[in-house]
Design a protein that fits this description.
- Helices cover about 0% and strands about 45% of the residues.
- The chain has no helices and 17 strands.
- The chain is elongated and about 70 Å long.
- It starts with 10 loop residues before the first strand and ends with a strand.
């Protein structure tokens, strides 16, 4: 049975309700400009599911770049994220280009799968990225009427944000349905018998209607839970 991850304590938020249109997808990036083709190298591979089948429609992008220094150390030179954003085809193939003497971080995301974060990839080797199905994050956005009843807020943007050690945010966005419900399908990794350490899913936030709630995912066992974000209309 599919379960939902444990979320932060349900909160009542005194905010002004607004009808914000869904965010637009980030524009696709372009390969590194201003360099000769001979100065570029490539990281490539295949994105597959846990059964080894290629996954089509996976969004991927460079989220960070490091450059090798003369002493052999690595220095961060780029951490803006969402560079060279592309999508896998039916064969699950991915590839990104970058300058020689560099290595890159590449993020992968697709609805219905847990995001994958591949770090410090160098040129040459073929990489196999496995994406798995996990736990849902589910909630509802409602407005409080003057009589205390609740009114669903439809088409309200909701985002899950994940920081990394460089301060870059990974983000997946959706909007609520006509009943105010939202579901991030299979977003969280499957819960294991071992407590999570300092992985990318240990600090996450749910962002909606100007409110930011931390998502708690350190439980050793799946827990069915639901967070309701209530938006109170302020009369002027």
């Amino acid at each position: 049975m599919k379960t939902a991850a444990l979320l932060a304590v349900p909160a009542l938020l005194a905010l002004v309700a607004s009808n914000v249109p869904p965010p637009c997808a980030a524009p696709a990036g372009e390969p590194v400009a201003g360099r000769q083709e001979r100065d570029l190298v490539q990281v490539a591979g295949t994105v597959v599911d846990e059964f080894g089948a290629p996954i089509e429609g996976v969004r991927y992008w460079i989220s960070g770049t490091e450059q090798r220094q003369a002493d052999g150390s690595w220095q961060l030179v780029h951490y803006l994220g969402m560079v060279q954003q592309r999508t896998t085809g039916a064969d699950g193939r991915f590839e990104v280009e970058f300058a020689k003497d560099h290595r890159v971080d590449v993020d992968f995301d697709r609805d219905g799968y847990t995001p994958s974060f591949e770090r410090k990839l160098g040129a040459g080797a073929q990489h196999r990225v496995v994406m798995r199905r996990g736990q849902d994050v589910t909630g509802r956005v409602v407005q409080i009427a003057s009589d205390g009843s609740t009114i669903p807020v439809e088409y309200s943007p909701v985002a899950i944000e994940i920081p990394n050690d460089r301060g870059v945010w990974f983000e997946r966005r959706i909007v609520t349905d006509h009943s105010g419900w939202f579901t991030f399908d299979d977003f969280l990794p499957p819960t294991t018998d071992e407590p999570r350490g300092d992985g990318p899913f240990d600090t996450m936030y749910l962002n909606c209607a100007g409110a930011r709630l931390e998502i708690e995912s350190r439980s050793d066992e799946p827990v069915e839970a639901l967070v309701t974000i209530s938006v109170e209309r302020v009369e002027h």
